[in-house]
Design brief:
Elements lengths: L4 H4 L10 H11 L5 E2 L11 H12 L12 H15 L8 E4 L1 H13 L5 E6 L5 H7 L3 E6 L10 H8 L4 E5 L11 H14 L2 E5 L24 E6 L12 E4 L2 H12 L7 H12 L2 H22 L6 E2 L7 E5 L7 H12 L1 E2 L1 E2 L10 E5 L4 H19 L1
Helix pairs in contact: 3-10, 4-10, 5-6, 5-9, 7-8, 11-13
Keywords: Aminotransferase, Pyridoxal phosphate, Transferase
Cofactor: pyridoxal 5'-phosphate
Organism: Profundibacter amoris
Length: 390
Amino acid sequence: MQLSNRITTLLGDGHDGWGLYLKSREMIDAGIPVIELTIGEHDIRTHPDILNAMHKSALGGHTGYAAVPGVTALRQAVAARVQDRTGVPTTIDNVLITPGGQSALFSSHHAVCDEGDTALFIDPYYATYPATLRAVGAIATPVAAHARDNFEPQAEAIAKHAKGAKSLLINTPNNPTGVVYSRATLKGIADVCRENDLWLISDEVYDTQIWQGEHLSPRALPDMAQRTLVVGSMSKSHAMTGSRIGWIVAPEEAIEHLSNLATHTTYGVPGYIQDAALFALEQGPPLEAEIAAPFARRREIAMRVLDGQNVVKHLPAMGAMYLMLDVHATGMSGEEFGHALLDNEHIAVMPGNSFGQSAAGHIRVAMTVEDGVFGQALERLVGFAKGLAG
């Protein structure tokens, strides 16, 4: 029996970029202590008050089938949050609740791409992007954003690929680079989308983690609300990664059809998880600031460690929970450096090429361990790089 071509070619060249992470997990399982600076998982757990709300809802009986588009009160809360932050009129009819941001990405591309359509995405990218696009039958096409441009995509580069394409996927604040796209960059992206009749899918799951600049949702730009689907999530803003709760904000017609898709795929999100998400959103910005605070502190620690040396170069993270570090001076690729760092220092990072060719020669460091451990790990990383560079 033969499996489908679509499922067996999801990874393209067969490399998913997670080899170094899996190696670190094997070392840990073997009893070797490793400092993991790999995945974007908070080192604090979901707030006890959110868990209590989830527990109360489950005990109260909200354990059966929940409404597929989402619990009305939660959709209203998401709509109000988005409208308040963007100034764009948003109602419950613009919101679909999804099982996390990844599901929202998959569904959004199903909504706008047919089999064989070209779907653009920015390189560097979150590791799941290419396979997500292939999974819906689209032709995943990267558009390079370069370190010399602060890893912000240039309108001219997108325009070269836009003719005949159907969609463009962007992510700001950005994983893996930590860059927050400027207003000028987003205006350029919007211009290309309008000129080439592209759908824009905007992954904004890090919108509460801004250290420098401002977050601007492209949905708020002129004539963009009707061609933009925004992906949101509780994972990063409220440390609810395992709860799998997110949303899509989109034009009403798109949400109507996306609800049909959800009915025939995920069949919604458990009601007690939705109730917990509603409780979390009702706590407002103070809780979001509490969740974001450790990463703001660790960014300052990183600045102190990295400034004043020129072996490990960096662009100061403007948002999200990551650092993108340039290790070209060591004479190694990002992957070679990552393996050497793990073998010699027992510190695990992600090689930049896990996130696309534009990040080759870099490593991504997740700021996801306790402050003191993080600072020491970064100092050891820099010292190791200096030794390699001579």
